Amino acid sequence: MPFTVLLVDDEPLVRAGLRAVLEAQPDIEVVGEAGDGAAVIPLVNRLRPDVVAMDVRMPLMDGIEATRLVLRTVPDPPKILVVTTFENDEYVYEALRAGADGFLLKRARPAEIVHAVRLVAEGESLLFPAAVRQLAAEYGTDKARAALDRAALTDRESAVLRLMARGLSNAEIAATLVVGLETVKSHVSSVLAKLGARDRTQAVIAAYESGFVAPG
What we know:
- The radius of gyration is 17 Å and the shape is globular.
- It is an alpha/beta fold.
- Helix content is 53%, strand content 13%.
- Residues 4-121 form the Response regulatory domain.
- This is Response regulator transcription factor.
């Protein structure tokens, strides 16, 4: 079965460009479009896409609030891929904090767009650009540092979190640590549980906000 995608952007040309790129792939199907975040919930409930490619800046409801609503109200919600013009946009960071699973620049090459959708659909979030990592570090709080301390990660879990923060997939982490893929999956699940993180993205944000991982 192909991955299904809902496109949400207030610019018709952007939606048309994304549709053309994605529908050229045999394993991706665009099942719908919306011009504003306010239309997302009914479309998600009706179409049940695997991924929502969501612009962060829209006139009626932005991608941040739309992301919060999807994750709060939709059972078994889709993955959210933030799509934006500027990589250092605080809106992007707030969308990731709200629960978005990945990040994509509108000027990305077609191959990068396709890769991003596949990666998010498969549950392995994207590497944050340097500007977003810096924002996460700047938003660091004593609360975030205390939460990471309470998580009491083992040495191996700490190593896995650092590699997750670098954007490595489970297979790449397994190769780096010279362990089996199932072992890595077990460590990732443990890290998420200890941090109280919904997914990899939330765990990586916690790592930067706590100062456990430094941007750069």
